[in-house]
């Protein structure tokens, strides 16, 4: 192929290439010829060569070596070369290229050219690839052209001003007066550019938005003229007079009327007129109606007008165009929260869209159908949704099943709560993760009563894990004692909490009294409040918990155990307290204010005191005599067993048989070394087996 071939011939040769390699060879040869001709000082075919290079660039091949040629052609006085140069600048240059700065002066000169077509080339190039620096330098020239008498130039200047405002928002004030004056133009192109410019100014500056709210009557008059005008061949599109300008005006009205009563009232009649007089059988009419609906829903419109807008979207659902059905359901989904009843009128049509073969329409129909489920229609809607679930595509099954499940809300069966608690109890490795997640769910939302009950139970049972703030499965969050008590108190005081939920919260609060150290008095205060609650079940719990605080506070072993562990000065056997409580449980309703006495200690020769717990329990109705409690038999000595002896530390177990089934075990720890020992901690692990019915006492001493 000769280097001097015309553009059409080069295109023909490239298209006739059979393989990509052959095409690449043709382009490489042509680019080499173009590069050689660019080096010539006097080349009359520069614009021709640059045009061929632009075609090569469109095919995706590198053409950066033509950037400087674009600068030379822009500076040329000939229009034919200047046109190709500006086209090349828009395609090959951008604001990141240093070469773009070289054309700033040429653009400024061409903006003052006597030919409107040369001015148009400069305006289009600046609007396409002008950098922030170029925009600052040339903004006064654009403002001057906005006031020109030529409509063709004013239209181009308005669109160029839009680009400048986007690049340098602070220059918007420069164009505000000229933009407002353009609304009085009769030329539709100028009006379109003016509306776009005003929209950009209002979106970026609240003060400018307030200024242009005064232009709402002018925009309403322009829009009425478009709606009521007769047939105009110049602007008619499928029977709609300039739908592009109508859509732009409606978008601007939506911005001006948002959160403003006066502006909204001024456009209500116009919106009603557009909604009733626009033909929706054509795509152009549907576009105008769709923008009208969006404007009605975004401003402070009348209730009747909003119903009319929803009905328009309902008609869109019957349209044969799937795109129109899709945008209709998308819009309905946005307004179903605020206008639920109006959308419910089209529930049947929406459900029918579940059978649409298009996957996107089907997905939107599913989302909207789930949003329409209410207490009134849940039976009929569940029937339709379950039918859809049985035949829907695999990619929608998970969403459909999840939506059907969530539609039930907090209405779950009674056995769900204890079943979930049982599952949590058995998963010991997940206790920390579970209590953290449920605590976060509790402080976020307490409307799901069943979930709140489980959360309260976990906080009461595993509150120490929550306060510790250590969890490997999730990001650790430090939770204070006050935070936990605040959450439980919120549940107790909420009007959404059922009596059963309050019972869970009160019990959890009481459980925390054995797991925290600094807020026991606050817990006592919370519990005492509900001692006079109108709910009998809650009142009974509070009274019983208050009794534990008053008469059995010495049994609060977990607190003292925690303190001992922190001091590292005493031995802690968690199961000893549990064994001692076996005797104390019978005295819950007894009349003695003295704490119950444990069994005899090692080395005592006198029998232990007789317990009156059984007598007090049998004497609840009064007048009943109880048999005397037999004296505790003397301890029978048993062999001594050395269980640990190392580094001067000796641990010995002394077993003494108290009865046929009772046993007292004494652990003696001694230090035979020559130095004192500190921070000595002894821990005992007890297997998870059922305890015998009779008590086993374990006494600890250390030397």
UniProtKB/TrEMBL annotation:
Membrane topology per record: Peripheral membrane protein
UniProt xrefs under Pfam families: Adaptin_N, Alpha_adaptinC2
Key word Signal present: no
Location within or outside the cell: Cytoplasmic vesicle membrane; Endomembrane system; Golgi apparatus
Keywords, ordered alphabetically: Cytoplasmic vesicle, Golgi apparatus, Membrane, Protein transport, Transport
GO-annotated biological processes: intracellular protein transport; vesicle-mediated transport
InterPro entries assigned: Adaptor_Complx_Large_Subunit, AP1_complex_gsu, ARM-like, ARM-type_fold, Clathrin/coatomer_adapt-like_N, Clathrin_a/b/g-adaptin_app_Ig, Clathrin_app_Ig-like_sf, GAE_dom
Domain annotation GAE: ranges: 636-703
Gene3D superfamilies: 2.60.40.1230, Leucine-rich Repeat Variant
GO cellular component, one term: AP-1 adaptor complex
Main location: membrane
Membrane-crossing residue ranges in chain numbering: none
Family per similarity comment: Belongs to the adaptor complexes large subunit family.
Name the UniProt record assigns to this protein: AP-1 complex subunit gamma
Lineage of producing organism: Eukaryota, Metazoa, Chordata, Craniata, Vertebrata
């Amino acid at each position: 192929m000769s280097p001097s071939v015309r553009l059409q011939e080069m295109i023909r040769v490239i298209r006739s290439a059979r393989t990509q390699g052959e095409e690449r060879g043709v382009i490489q040869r042509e680019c080499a010829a173009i590069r050689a001709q660019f080096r010539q000082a006097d080349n009359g075919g520069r614009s021709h060569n640059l045009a061929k290079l632009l075609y090569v660039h469109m095919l995706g091949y590198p053409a950066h070596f033509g950037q400087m040629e674009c600068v030379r052609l822009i500076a040329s006085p000939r229009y034919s070369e200047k046109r190709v140069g500006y086209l090349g600048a828009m395609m090959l240059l951008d604001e990141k290229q240093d070469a773009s700065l070289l054309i700033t002066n040429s653009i400024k000169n061409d903006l003052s050219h006597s030919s409107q077509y040369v001015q148009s080339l400069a305006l289009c190039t600046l609007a396409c690839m002008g950098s922030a620096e170029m925009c600052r330098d040339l903004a006064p020239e654009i403002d001057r052209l906005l006031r020109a008498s030529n409509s063709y130039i004013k239209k181009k200047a308005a669109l160029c001003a839009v680009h400048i405002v986007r690049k340098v928002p602070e220059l918007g004030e420069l164009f505000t007066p000229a933009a407002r004056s353009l609304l009085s133009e009769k030329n539709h192109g100028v009006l379109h550019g003016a509306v776009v410019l005003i929209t950009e100014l209002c979106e970026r500056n609240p003060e400018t938005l307030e200024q242009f709210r005064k232009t709402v009557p002018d925009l309403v008059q322009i829009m009425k003229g478009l709606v009521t005008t007769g047939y105009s061949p110049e602007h008619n599109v499928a029977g709609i007079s300039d739908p592009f300008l109508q859509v732009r005006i409606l978008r601007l009205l939506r911005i001006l009327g948002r959160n403003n009563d006066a502006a909204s009232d001024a456009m209500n009649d116009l919106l009603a007129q557009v909604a009733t007089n626009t033909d929706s059988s054509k795509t152009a009419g549907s576009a105008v109606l769709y923008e009208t609906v969006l404007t009605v829903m975004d401003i402070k419109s009348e209730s009747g007008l909003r119903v009319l807008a929803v009905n328009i979207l309902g008609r869109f659902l019957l349209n044969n165009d799937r795109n129109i059905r899709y945008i209709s359901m998308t819009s309905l989904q946005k307004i179903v929260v605020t206008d639920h009843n109006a959308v419910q009128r089209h529930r049947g049509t929406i459900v029918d869209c579940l059978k649409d073969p298009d996957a996107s329409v089907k997905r939107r129909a599913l989302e909207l159908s789930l949003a329409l489920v209410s207490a009134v229609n849940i039976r009929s809607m569940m029937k339709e949704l379950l039918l859809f679930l049985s035949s829907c595509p695999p990619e929608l099954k998970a969403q459909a099943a999840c939506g059907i499940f969530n539609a039930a809300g907090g209405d779950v069966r009674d056995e769900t709560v204890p079943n979930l608690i049982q599952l949590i109890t058995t998963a010991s490795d997940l206790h920390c993760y579970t209590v953290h997640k449920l605590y976060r769910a509790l402080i976020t939302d307490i409307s799901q009563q069943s979930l709140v009950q489980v959360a309260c139970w976990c906080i009461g049972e595993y509150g120490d894990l929550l306060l510790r703030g250590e969890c490997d499965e999730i990001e650790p969050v430090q939770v204070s004692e006050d935070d936990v008590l605040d959450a439980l108190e919120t549940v107790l005081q909420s009007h959404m909490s059922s009596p059963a939920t309050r019972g869970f919260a009160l019990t959890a609060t009481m459980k925390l009294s054995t797991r925290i150290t600094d807020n026991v008095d606050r817990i006592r205060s919370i519990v005492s409040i509900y001692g006079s609650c109108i709910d009998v079940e809650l009142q009974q719990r509070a009274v019983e918990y208050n009794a534990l605080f008053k008469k059995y506070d010495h049994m609060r072993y977990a607190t003292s155990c925690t303190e001992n562990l922190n001091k590292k000065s005493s031995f802690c056997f968690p199961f000893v307290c549990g064994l001692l409580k076996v005797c104390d449980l019978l005295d819950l309703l007894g009349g003695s204010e003295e704490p119950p006495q444990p069994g005899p200690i090692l080395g005592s020769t006198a029998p232990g005191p007789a317990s009156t717990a059984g007598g007090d329990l049998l004497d609840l109705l009064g007048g009943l005599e109880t048999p005397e409690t037999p004296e505790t038999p003397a301890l029978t000595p048993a062999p001594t067993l050395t269980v640990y002896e190392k580094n001067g530390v000796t641990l010995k177990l002394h077993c003494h048989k108290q009865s046929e089934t009772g046993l007292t075990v004494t652990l003696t720890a001694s230090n035979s070394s020559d130095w004192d020992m500190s921070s000595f901690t002894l821990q005992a692990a007890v297997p998870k087996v059922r305890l015998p019915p009779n008590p086993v006492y374990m006494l600890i001493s250390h030397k």
